[in-house]
Amino acid sequence: MSNKGFAAVAAAFIALTGCAALDAKPKSAPPIFVNEDPYPSTYVRYPGALTVIRHATVFDGDGRRYDNGTVVFADGVVQAVGGPELASPAGAVEIDGTGKWVTPGIIDVHSHLGDYPSPSVSSLSDGNEATSPVRPEVWAEHSVWPQDPGFSRALINGGVTTLQILPGSANLFGGRSVVLKNVPARTTQGMKFPGAPYGLKMACGENPKRVYGSKGNMPQTRMGNIALTRQTWAKAQAYKHKWDKYYANGGEMPERDLAMDTLKGVLEGKILVHNHCYRADEMAIMIDMAKEFGYKVTAFHHAVEAYKIADLLRDNDVCAVMWADWYGFKMEAYDAVKENIPLVQNAGACAIVHSDDPNYIQRLNQEAAKALADGVRAGIPNLSEAVAWEWLSRNPAKALGILDKTGTLAPGKMADVVMWNGDPFSDYTRPERVWIDGAEMYDANDPKRRPVSDFELGQPGEGDVK
Amino acid sequence: MIRRVLAGLLIAAAAPAAAQTFAISGGTVALGDGTQPIPNGMVVVRDGRIVAAGDVRMKLPAGTQVIDATGKWVTPGIVAGFSRLGLAEVDLTASEEDGGGKSDTSGAADDTTSNGPFNAAIDVVPSINPLDTTIAVNRADGVTRALVAPSVGKNIFAGQGAVIDTGADMDPVTAARKFQFVELGETGADKAGGSRASAHVLFRNALREAAELRRYAPAIAAGRAEAPDERERPVVRNPNESRVYDARRSEDVLLTRFDAAALVPVLQGRQYLLVHVERASDILQVLALKREFPSLKIVLVGASEGWLVAARIAQAGIPVVASAVNDLPASFEQIASTQSNVGRMRAAGVKVSIGMIDDNDTRNLFMERQYAGNLVALQRVPGATGVSWGEALAMITSKPAETIGLGGEIGSLAPGRRADVVIWSGDPLEGTSAAEQVFIDGVRQPLETHQTRLLERYRYLPRRDLPEAYRH
Fold first, then answer.
1. Helix or strand or coil: residue B286?
2. Which of A262, B219, B239, B333 is the residue whose CA sits 20 to 30 A from A169?
3. Is residue A363 less than 8 Å (CB to CB) from chain B?
4. CB B181 within 8 A of CB B158
């Protein structure tokens, strides 16, 4: 919201309260509303042609597959998806998709591009404000370096069109996330996904207790993790109560606490909780905690043991964000199984493939492929490539609160589209062309249609295929 | 579970590799030597070795067991070109994204000696635990051998690496002390006190100290003596039983006697020297070392910027174990990284194989075949340089074996090689394919792991008459 918009809303509020208060005794000063969007998105889509892709295999991201499919997009949005019978609008650029696959762009809900960028030097490492286990006041967007060369690799090799940048997991409350369009810009605001809600990164388990316990501070144990997290939510409830009263009655504005502002946003349902949590028993505790304090966990990230409680995740409508086959790199990842993702899918819960890594983000389609194949081999029913694509775009969009805008090829949604040079569930396949909001951001056949970050200009390998 | 796995191990140990003759027929057979796959091929194994493989039409002895591999693919087992497999059950160090610091599982991680007094003398073998779940997980995915290197501690020299098999038995070592591992790039500079220049002086000094030991101990100086010299051989076999204690040394030495002794076979070219460098200029410095010490048997490890100087690497005849798909300027020594690096080096005539260099090297070796498939994919990307399917498979089978002189033993299905054979559900360079049967030295391996047992236990969640803990 711009400052002007904020002023208008404030004025409207004054007018309303003015009417309602006619017969009341003189009131204290009316409340002034805090601007909840002080670093607004300045992203504007780039121009794109009216485009029709024909004769391609299409996964619409909503579980449907079209052989010999047609995709039409114009003015930045999907116009139609269907079979060969779909007519081409006049003046459309026709692309022959024979032998190609077309999908919604991949959405990675767990990336640290920009806050742990390449090159990996301490001057640029801005992902963990590991100075206190409770840091909900920090915002990942204030760390993101938009010149991270990793964004371009995620686009051209990975077909990633949207991604959530999270703070690291050293803290119980790591700070706010930011959702970005994978379109290069001079500023982070220029990449911000318009209208995407904020997320809050939380963490349970090993990391907070290791980072602070080793300094002799709380938390040093898992029970310390939980106690401190609960205490913080209790404070946030009191803070929210104070502000609710102020917004209802006016008077003296309470002192602002940026940390509590974020948690208040969660309690109001405006900010989505993305909870780093590996173990089944800990996820169950975090679900109860959310009920205790009246918020919702949107997704458990790195949910290596999600398969043990897939029913609980389904019943509580919590997404599980998973790798295909990472295991054992830490104690809480010890009980990984390769069928985790398909088992969560099979239970009727929301399954998502994520990277948490600047290399794996380039191969999320292959990660989904492995998980799918492992699931099929284990005899898990109702799996298909079309269903598995939901793990890569639809469900991530749901977890980010942007499913009404992207994540599937439903007409009216943003034309975030990847055309692959073969079946994307194969190691032999790469993106050939990528559109974001209908603008072509990558074409494998055109060296000029590929982003090169400022950092790479004039360096050996500038503009290489990567 | 433990009981069941141990029982499996005992059976594997009890069944001798010898005397087993069998054939695998009907599958698509890839030899691992760089050639393309052969449809409807055959693999014949006797006494733990390959007898014949490929388009074979031979009469099998009566009673030979024939395994039908129709619709399957058959290849040599994957050889991890660079790894730390078997050294860590759970990794030691937490990543920056995890907040950094050390996790509390150091007792289960032996991959780095961060605080010990020795360096080059370290022999990685005592750290290897064949019962690590990491070995089982990789075995179950068709990885049958691995080059295992220690990580550096305080010195540029990490110590001596081994080649292991992943068999379900208590004897993992194929070749102990096969190579010395040294860091001469960014990590080397750090270990040498802050600069590459210092790392190179340290390196030269170390070889000087080794040479001096050799000079003062005539038996070592003899090198390849016609008659084995019992005082010399133990230096090669096991530096921890070094018998060069009577050799005189100068006053100004930096290495312990054991460390210096361990470098004698490196200096004599009787032990491979794996050198980790990434930057193009660092690679050229290593090529210069080869000119200065012609007897060194150098292998480059990493070499992310190798494509910039590929012709010179080829000219020097030095093989490379490369990261397959590094394409980020992850550090200032990898600015020119591209997935085409391997293809371009190969096209220039460099012998390239694939390793997992600081990339989940203790546990995710099974990803090498996916990476190899990704290199094949590059053939269809305009401007990129990929490799053919046969070459890609060779880079994860025969090439790493040849790089350290074991090409005659492992890594291909050529007659006489150890029978490390995998039957895959499909094309092994597709991550979607799975290893269905794995043989090491001709012995069929169990493919059960901690992970497969967990799947069985939690496959169906509805409550039963007893808790989940009773499902085993």
1. helix
2. B333
3. yes
4. yes
Q: What mean pLDDT do residues A10-14 have?
A: 44
Query: Is B376 part of the contact surface with chain A (CB cutoff 8 Å)?
Result: yes
The pLDDT assigned to B229 comes to: 46
Mean pLDDT of B318-342: 98
Shortest CA gap B12–chain A (Å): 25
pLDDT of residue B358: 87
Residue of B nearest to A306 (CA): B458
Looking at beta carbons, which residues of chain B come within 8 Å of A331?
90, 103-105
Residue B240 pLDDT greater than 90, yes or no: no
Q: Which residues of A touch B383 (CB under 8 A)?
A: 447, 464-465
Looking at CA atoms only, how far is residue B116 from chain A in angstroms? Answer: 23
List the single best residue of A330, A353, A356 to mutate versus B (max B Cβ within 10 A).
A330
The Cα of B260 is separated from the nearest Cα of chain A by a number of Å equal to 34
Q: Which residue of chain B is at minimal alpha-carbon distance from A339?
A: B455
Q: Do B451 and A327 touch (CB under 8 A)?
A: yes
Q: Which domains does chain B have, with CATH numbers?
A: 2-77+421-455 (2.30.40.10), 78-403 (3.20.20.140)
CB neighbour list of residue B192: distance below 8 Å, 6 or more residues apart: B156, B198, B199, B201, B202
Q: How many CB atoms lie within 10 A of CB B443?
A: 22
Q: Looking at chain B from residue 102 to 121, which residues have their Cβ under 8 Å from any Cβ of chain A? A: 103-105
Between A221-230, B221-230, B272-281, the lowest mean confidence (pLDDT) is in: B221-230
Mutate to test the interface with A, among B72, B308, B327 (most CBs of A within 10 A): B327
Q: Read off the pLDDT of residues A201-216 as tens digits, 9 standing for 90 and up.
A: 999 999 999 999 999 9
- Residue A82 near residue A64 (C-beta atoms within 8 A): no
Give yes or no for A410 touching B (CB within 8 A).
no
| Minimum CA–CA partner of B373 in chain A | A427
Contact B137 A343 (CB under 8 A): no
CB A107 within 8 A of CB A393: yes
Segment A324-333 mean pLDDT: 96
Chain B residues whose CB is inside 8 A of the A202 CB are: none
Return the percentage of chain B with pLDDT > 70, whole number. Answer: 87
Q: State how far the Cα of A200 lies from the Cα of A273, in Å rounded to an integer.
A: 5
Our CA-based measurement puts residue B137 at a distance from the nearest CA of chain A, in whole angstroms, of: 10
- In this structure, are residues B223 and B236 in contact, taking their beta carbons and an 8 Å threshold? no
